[in-house]
What does this fold into?
Amino acid sequence: MGTIQRVAVIGLGYIGLPTAAILATNGFEVVGVDVNRRTVESVNAGEVPFVEPDLGVHVAGAVSRGSLRASLDTPKADAYIVAVPTPFSADRSADLSYIEAAARGIAPQLEGGELVVLESTSPPRATRHLADYILNLRPDLSLDGAGGKPAILLAHCPERVLPGRVMIELVTNDRIIGGITQEAAERAKALYATFCQGEIHVTDDITAEMAKLVENSFRDVNIAFANELSVISDRLGIDVWELIRLANHHPRVNILQPGPGVGGHCIAVDPWFIVAEAPEQARLIKIARTVNDTKPLWVVDKVIQALEAAPLGTQIAILGLAFKANIDDLRESPAVEITRLVAERSPESKINVVEPHVEQLPHQFTGLDNVELTDLTVGLKNSGIVVLLVDHDDFKAAGQLDLDGKVIIDTRGILSV
Ligand code: SAJ
It folds into this structure.
């Protein structure tokens, strides 16, 4: 098998495009493939269709040097990296249709000897499913040379980068690579070693798939513990952030932070893939998901109770809509859910939303005339109830603002720090 020179990256999203750009910067000839014509056009123009620090420089440089281009069609390549979405279906099992679509593009291009790496967060056995799907389309190939058929090398290498730090973590994070065969794992390791400065750990495909799901479930379970403590502390009339700060002084205790719920497209999704695989056994993982998913409703009840106790006409300030601090991403954000539910349950109350990272309210607020986007000063001045939902740096100074006489619901502990 020859060395890898040409790499096709299927899916130019938050993971695929940075990976394509890093490979192009490290001497590979890279073609990024996407079904979205606008994405393809903007990458070919050297532009990035979403916000991620430092990505723009890499893409613009690689495109202008000719080492990166985008296409709607899957080309012939020495290695294929699949970085397409794996959303969950209505029954919360993983939807593998995007992976299958990628396989339909790759299969006709294979000659034998190519490496195919699945990077998408995947349920156990998804890499095998991808392999079977390709072999079904190409019965003349094999995974290990059996029957004299040329082999293709299948591996899983889950992405683990944190949105907002992708270009740094792509290079510095350790990676886990699971091969369907040892040869596949070793070849994938050689490819990733060209740009990854972290350690690269080799294992089998199913362990690699589970490692990614377990990392996010670990976080989900631990956030659920913190969220449960916040509800218990509220009942006891104590400050949960002080409680956690004190408990964390113990050398073997490290409790995470409670919040209004868990947002984003990873931690709130991946644990369900484990639950779908082992519904009887994954008891803790499932209850943690439920604890985190119901936390926004608890916050909504708190706001409604405050409203009922306040004088008629009291306005509400909502501080933050993003799913976490200092980003503009509103998708799957508990803050959006809370604000929408409060607006629906109290249509007569004016809601002043303060979110410095966006210029307009998202579609969830269409038709809700009592909700308005405003700035921090105006929002606070007009409101008798202040609900802190995101710990943006912009709000950290809120403790110094005049909150006298206002009812504060601080779901992030900004005022406790
Ligand atoms: N959150 C809390 N309390 C905490 C920590 C987080 O309520 O103590 C909330 C955040 O506010 C947010 C959600 O959890 O709503 C998730 O935020 P996050 O920063 O923990 O993680 P993500 O979703 O941005 O990225 C995660 C990362 N996984 C882990 O840290 C184990 C990242 O490394 C993964 O690559 C990413 O998921 C992914 O793509 O799977």
Remarks:
- The chain has 14 helices and 13 strands.
